[in-house]
Amino acid sequence: xxxxxxxxxxxxxxxxxxxxxxxxxxxxxxxxxxxxxxxxxxxxxxxxxxxxxxxxxxxxxxxxxxxxxxxxxxxxxxxxxxxxxxxxxxxxxxxxxxxxxxxxxxxxxxxxxxxxxxxxxxxxxxxxxxxxxxxxxxxxxxxxxxxxxxxxxxxxxxxxxxxxxxxxxxxxxxxxxxxxxxxxxxxxxxxxxxxxxxxxxxxxxxxxxxxxxxxxxxxxxxxxxxxxxxxxxxxxxxxxxxxxxxxxxxxxxxxxxxxxxxxxxxxxxxxxxxxxxxxxxxxxxxxxxxxxxxxxxxxxxxxxxxxxxxxxxxxxxxxxx
Length: 321
Description:
five-stranded parallel β-sheet; single chain; Rossmann fold; globular; 11 strands; Ubiquitin-like (UB roll)
């Protein structure tokens, strides 16, 4: 019987690559096959969920000993040489490059247009939400993006922890006291699940995630100045779970256009990039944990607050009669 080539699916930089290998190939051979398709050098590649007896396998390890099923999904971190050179040679003082559009709320007023409300109704009816943990009474709602919000998904690293935004678990533990937590990423559900597993979010003992939403829960809108954009309408959640509304919901995302349908409920978080350089100084999540606590304890309507000024927000004193 002839040996049959097997294959794995490598996820890198938002794309998927089908990599074929033979039963006698090693991890080093696999990295070279990956290099052929991605041009990421083997020494730059970090195959995060490739394990042998619970540990990262040596490059000499035979792939057959890993007992991979054909089609096994591998998440790879790694940078192209030209990208690394560009980062290393980037002059200081340059403005931050963000994968976003300079969209001001006053430029776009689309949240009440009937065509988009109809799309939201379609999502409410057809999109299936898998509840991971039951809701608790009287909790607010926090909706979180993943890439560049909780996780630097493009830098190279040996483990998911090295790409995790500092204080992530402390932040989620604090938020969970007052909020149900939802993860909404513009990727597929399988990769959301994989990232949450790599970061230790899905199995953490101090907090629980209510549910995940993926790209198929988003809708497309047309902005004359920018064309067609995919956005995350919170109305999908509100339509499915009426206990949540503009009054008790806040969304964090590093891309402002994602909350074009709900501009008063979105907070644009500073993107977490170049994890190897910024891990020791990034305290964004610690500060935001305090902001969420202040909102939960003092604000009756989240949509009445300008979240762009969250760092200087001071709640109005409640009057007691």
